[in-house]
Specification:
Number of domains: 1
Helix content: 10-25%
Number of strands: 8
Largest sheet: 8 strands, mixed
CATH architecture: Alpha-Beta Complex
Order of helices and strands: EEEEHEEEEH
Bound molecules: 8-OXO-2'-deoxyguanosine-5'-triphosphate
CATH topology: Nucleoside Triphosphate Pyrophosphohydrolase
Shape: globular
C-alpha cells in the first residue's frame, strides 16, 4: 500500500502542546492526533502544514523544527507523517473539524487514545525536547 503524505503540527505553548480529537465522521474516529492533513500535489510539507492549521484551527503558525518522518500502515490506509514543531503566531483557536482539543504536558499524552502513527512522533518529540534542554 502506497502511503499518503500527511503533515502534522506539534504546536508548543509554554511547556504544553496541542492535541485534537478527530470527529466520529472522520477516519480514525475519536482518536487524538496532532492537527494537520494531506499534502496536495505541488505543495511543500511546511506550506501544507500552515494551510491545514489555518483551515482546521483558524490560527497562523510558524515552523520551529521538522521531526523525522513516520510511516504507519493501518488496515485500510498507510500514512507518512511529516511532523513539525510549531508556535502559534496569531488568531484564536476555533475548531472547524475536530470535536475537541486540549493543551497537554508531554507526560500526560499517554493517557489519550492517540492515532497509532503518532506514537513514534511523540517519542521523537520527547527526544527533541531533551536535546533542546541540553543545549
Ligand atoms: N492530520 C493528522 N492525520 C493523522 C495523524 N495521525 C494519523 O494517523 N493521521 C491519519 C489520519 C488520516 O488517515 C490521514 C490524514 O487525513 P485527514 O483527514 O486529517 O487529512 P485532510 O484534512 O487533508 O483530509 P480531507 O481534506 O481529505 O478530508 O492521516 C495526525 O497526527 N494528524
Amino acid at each position: 500500500m502506497q502511503p499518503i503524505d500527511v503533515t502534522c503540527a506539534i504546536i508548543e505553548r509554554d511547556d504544553q502542546i496541542l492535541i485534537a480529537q478527530r470527529s466520529e465522521s472522520m477516519s480514525l474516529p475519536l482518536k487524538w492526533e496532532f492537527p494537520g492533513g494531506k499534502i496536495r500535489a505541488g505543495e511543500s510539507p511546511s506550506d501544507c502544514l500552515v494551510r491545514e492549521i489555518d483551515e482546521e484551527l483558524g490560527v497562523k503558525v510558524t515552523v520551529v523544527a521538522a521531526l523525522p518522518l513516520v510511516t504507519h500502515h493501518y488496515p485500510e490506509i498507510a500514512v507518512t507523517l511529516h511532523p513539525f514543531v510549531c508556535t502559534q503566531i496569531s488568531g484564536d483557536l476555533v475548531l472547524a473539524e475536530h470535536v475537541d482539543c486540549c493543551w497537554v504536558n508531554l507526560e500526560s499524552l499517554s493517557s489519550y487514545d492517540l492515532a497509532a502513527a503518532d506514537i513514534p512522533v511523540v517519542q521523537s518529540y520527547a527526544r527533541y525536547r531533551r536535546n533542546e534542554r541540553a543545549e
